[in-house]
Specification:
The structure holds 2 protein chains of 2 kinds. In chain A, 38% of the residues lie in helices and 20% in strands. Chain A is built from 2 helices and 5 strands. In chain A, strands 3-2-4 form a 3-stranded antiparallel β-sheet, with helices on both faces. Chain A is globular. By secondary structure, chain B is mainly beta. Helices cover 8% and strands 48% of the residues of chain B. In chain B, strands 2, 3, 4, 5, 6, 9, 10 and 11 form an 8-stranded mixed β-sheet that branches. In chain B, strands 1-13-12 form a 3-stranded antiparallel β-sheet, with no helix packed on it. In chain B, strand 2 and strand 3 (15-24) form a beta hairpin. Classes of the chains: A alpha+beta, B mainly beta. Strand 1 (7-11) of chain A pairs antiparallel with strand 10 of chain B.
Chain lengths: 103, 146
């Protein structure tokens, strides 16, 4: 048995599964759109917050602003997502985050 | 159980292993997020953007859960919620527990799926085959000479 603080549960409710499938499809559509349009968004999106909804990009200085713009334009898109876009293109190291033990 | 992720090109032109997931917000809605599959991270960490979208009251993490990175210590909070993954056969898996979250929106462009979650799976990251797989229960892998 693996010692993990996270509990994994398989969901069998058909309604939850159907809802997840539909939402995943909309999420993937927005994600695929971003993959195909990075070149159109750069470099103006650097250092900004980006939200993709309805296969459209919304860019603002704050995440609140970007989310509000996306929500206003596509209130029914439950597959929207977003991210902060780093201002610089330096090599990124994500892996060195760890939990400190008590000193 | 097989969760299929993908190698996703990011804004810097670098392709990284990710899984798409949803996270249950305080309101009960599900927020979409792209998680970096990061076997070097001890913990799963939500981006500050996701934290804001979830709308939970901010609970400072205990001192023992301070997040330290190569650039120093990061401010974080603890969030008790459910991360939802979709299996390749359409089934749904819930991961329930306490997760860390960055509080500074410019700290990370991605949420991170760390070993607190990844230890529940066999993790396959193959850039050569363009595969990102999380395997559990009725799925396993085998290494064979070719």
């Amino acid at each position: 048995m693996i010692d993990s603080p996270i509990i994994m549960e398989e969901v069998t409710d058909p309604a939850v599964i159907a809802r997840a499938r539909a939402q995943d499809e909309r999420f993937k559509r927005n994600s695929d759109w971003l993959q195909a349009h990075w070149a159109d968004l750069l470099p103006q999106v650097r250092g900004k917050h980006l939200v993709v909804a309805g296969q459209e990009a919304f860019i603002a200085d704050t995440l609140e602003e970007a989310s509000a713009m996306a929500q206003a334009a596509h209130p029914d898109d439950d597959g929207s997502f977003g991210q902060y876009v780093f201002p610089n293109v330096w090599p990124r190291i994500y892996a060195h985050r760890w939990r400190m033990v008590d000193a | 159980m097989r969760i299929v992720g993908e190698w996703l090109m990011r804004d810097d032109g670098v392709t990284r292993p990710v899984v798409r997931a949803k996270v249950v917000a305080a309101s009960g809605t599900l927020e979409r997020e792209i998680f970096l599959v990061d076997s070097g991270a001890d913990r799963t960490v939500f981006s500050a953007r996701l934290l804001w979208k979830l709308g939970f009251p901010m609970t400072p993490g205990p001192e023992s859960s301070i997040l330290q990175g190569i650039g120093g210590v990061c401010d974080s909070v603890e969030v008790k919620t459910v991360v939802e993954l979709t299996r390749d056969d359409g089934g749904v898996v819930h991961l329930r527990g306490e997760f860390a979250a960055f509080t500074n929106p410019t700290e990370s462009d991605l949420s991170i799926l760390g070993r607190d979650v990844l230890n529940l799976f066999d993790v396959i990251l193959s850039r050569r085959r363009s595969e990102v797989l999380l395997l559990a229960s009725n799925h396993q892998y085998r290494v064979e000479p070719v």
